[in-house]
Design a protein that fits this description.
Two copies of one chain form a homodimer. The first copy, chain A, is built from six helices and two strands, in the order ααααββαα. By secondary structure, chain A is mainly alpha-helical. The first copy, chain A, has a two-stranded antiparallel ribbon with strand order 1-2. In chain A, β1 and β2 form a beta hairpin. The two termini of chain A are 30 Å apart. Chains A and B meet through α1, α5 and α6 of A and α1, α5 and α6 of B. The structure holds a DNA duplex (30 and 30 nucleotides).
DNA sequence: CCTGAATAGCTCAAGCCTAAAGTATCTGCC
DNA sequence: GGCAGATACTTTAGGCTTGAGCTATTCAGG
């Protein structure tokens, strides 16, 4: 196999890996979305945002949320607006920077999230129940390396 | 470790796997989206639809596209409408079913897609260049099994 | 102190996506 | 043939997401 053919083959390999990754991701995502809607009348983005806030009890600035969720700032604005309206989240003035907010879970938000998180975890565990532990350990490692390699190129 | 604790640990394992999968998928997806927009002024959904049509030169019905792309029918309607307007795709009457269309690439669509596909493959290959062949082979296999296990639960 | 660049956040238009409801057609069964 | 249910597709309302452009604030150098 000459050099050019090899390049092409490797290109295909990368492409097929990406497509398969996407398929797996979408399969799980659709499942979770559908259940979040059906059981809690909410959406994945809202859930993800609450989830980040739950991990950071002191609150997060809008741009920190934006970075963690890997979405644009405008998007975060919209979702936070909704969650504030629903009483799950509050915007506090940032003491040290008058441009910024500190967004935090309200008590109601914390409670609502806890219930959703439990269910969410169950759904995912059930969906992936057929994946043997050996596979999932291996996947965690390989995906960590893939993530690292990708980040270095981004 | 008693049974209940084990369940919880496995739940966390599944959850963490799903989150990592999602992160990897999003990293690549954002990269590709941004380049499709920048270089070709198009979007990933449009590209995916063209890609399916390219694999099926005889054309596909709307519901086949819907199934292959894992999106709803209404969504496919919208994207096909756009691609028709742009002249990349054509809707032909299905001979055997007057409710259905047969959607096909036009010559212009075929040409445009070929160029995008080449670039797309290069982007992905470059982004994943740091993933050793051994890793990517292993990932392909493991993800195939994960996909299978997930499909059986859906 | 001032001023220009950087940063935090918001708004807007446009496109993606879904679920639900609606129309047209097909198919199987009597 | 005719009718009931299934199927193919479209439409609509509502939410997500982006990129671009906007204001207000901060910060660093002169």
């Amino acid at each position: 196999m000459d050099r050019e053919t090899r390049v092409t083959v490797d290109d295909h390999r990368a492409l097929r890996l990406w497509l398969r990754l996407l398929t797996c991701s979408q399969l799980i995502e659709r499942h979770v979305r559908s259940r979040l809607r059906g059981r809690f009348g909410t959406t994945l983005p809202r859930f993800d945002l609450l989830s980040q806030l739950e991990r950071h009890p002191a609150g997060l600035k809008m741009n920190e949320l934006s970075r963690l969720l890997m979405v644009t700032g405008g998007n975060v604005t919209g979702i936070v607006d909704q969650l504030v309206k629903e009483g799950l989240v509050e915007r506090l003035d940032d003491e040290s920077d008058r441009r910024a907010w500190r967004v935090r879970l309200t008590r109601a938000g914390d409670k609502a999230f806890a219930e959703m998180a439990r269910a969410h975890e169950d759904w995912v565990a059930e969906l992936l129940a057929g994946v043997p532990r050996r596979d999932s350990d291996a996947l965690m490692q390989l995906l960590a390396r893939l993530k690292q390699a990708t980040l270095e190129k981004s």
